[in-house]
Amino acid sequence: MSTVSFGFSVSWPSSTIPKLQSADDRVNPLGNPLTTVEISTLAALPSVAGCLGLYFTPLLTDNLGRKSTLVTISTVVVLSMLSLAFAREIYLYYISLFVNGFCTSCLMAVVSVYNTEITDNNNRGRINCLMGASVPFGAILVYLSGSASVRTICIVGTITPAMFLVLSIFLPETPMYLLTSKKDSECLKALQRLRGTKNVEEEYLQMKRNVRQSDSKKCILDVFKTRASIRSFGYTMELLMTQTFSGIFVLGAFMGPIFDEAGAYLTGNAIGVLAGVVQIVFVVVASLFVERLGRKPLLFASMGCCVGCLAVLSVYFYLKSLDSMWIERVKWLPVIIVIMYYISYSVGVGPVPFALACELFSNELRAVGFSTALILSNAIIFVTLFAFPLISEAFGVHVNLVICCVLSVIVGFLIHRTVPETRGKSLNEIQKILSD
Known about the structure:
The protein has helices at about 5-20, 35-65, 65-85, 90-120, 125-130, 135-145, 150-155, 160-165, 175-180, 185-195, 200-215, 225-245, 250-260, 270-295, 295-320, 335-350, 350-360, 365-395, 395-420, 425-435. The two termini are about 40 Å apart. With about 425 residues, it is mostly helical. Helix 2 (about 35-65) packs antiparallel against helix 3. The protein has one domain (about 5-180, about 220-435): MFS general substrate transporter like domains (Growth Hormone, Chain: A, Up-down Bundle), CATH 1.20.1250. The protein is globular and about 70 Å long. The chain contains 20 helices and no strands.
């Protein structure tokens, strides 16, 4: 539930930017319409903040614990959205979005680590895939409230993190963190609670052996000291790039402006709601098959379909830029293609990279390694989001989509050649594969 805020943050510009471009002060709380550079900054700023937030994630999780970090960060998310709701100056928007981006990126990293540490080998991939459903749910909240005022949209963004704060009293701390904090008895109790049985001795002893082998605190430089950790980091970057280059962040942030301009039968917000619902349904479907079919087959099938959908959309927008008469006959096409795109994204590119990446790092490097990879990923997301309005204004939306297609194909080839399949393997077995 806490990661719903990330989806909300990513999609927030889609419903608010058209209002902030209005010259009507009853619609635009800033009074003056945003410039193209200001639009780029608003859309991309959370990604920059995310880089900083992810840098501090290992420090927070290792010192406060996984659960306490989630509670603390969720509280700040609520405060940042309230600040955004009542802001009247552009610099207050920048500050609020920076804080929000800092926190929501932290949440994505911490929840990934939390899920990995509380689940067993047979359910780890499934649970991490289900986390992917929270992001489109956050987007749906944005699109459903899209016709409301900017203030109302921001207040809606406080609902799910506030609900998480209430429900967090029922969450246990992860057994792995309790062990590293020398709380052996609490670790055993947490493990028994999570597994639903008292017969957890073998898993408990294995965890103790893992902790003894990695008893020192780790920093970013430790990620690059061994063959296995370097490979883990490189493969994780490849996996995260599948999401960045798939165009999902661009579509999420600019869904409203893009498809309102496209002249489709439905508004951008309506398309966003449909896409979000489809995404949630198929993320759940993916979670059912990820342990049966494997991570990589789902990922490659998904990537191929996403690239195909983006290619069709790029042709549509190119013809639209030429004022082709053909466009009038196929105004339904963007709606169909976007739905197909989100179905494809949801069964592979959305959930699988997080599920697979969290399995690649060893226990002692998971927090710092995954956070470091997310920092670099966020930096690239910032570039794509900042550049999108500028490239679209100069060359057209279709050029952005073609760039996404080409980069997705390149990353897909790299993953095919390098990243191992982890289905049914323990975390120790995966580390042995990476060390060979």
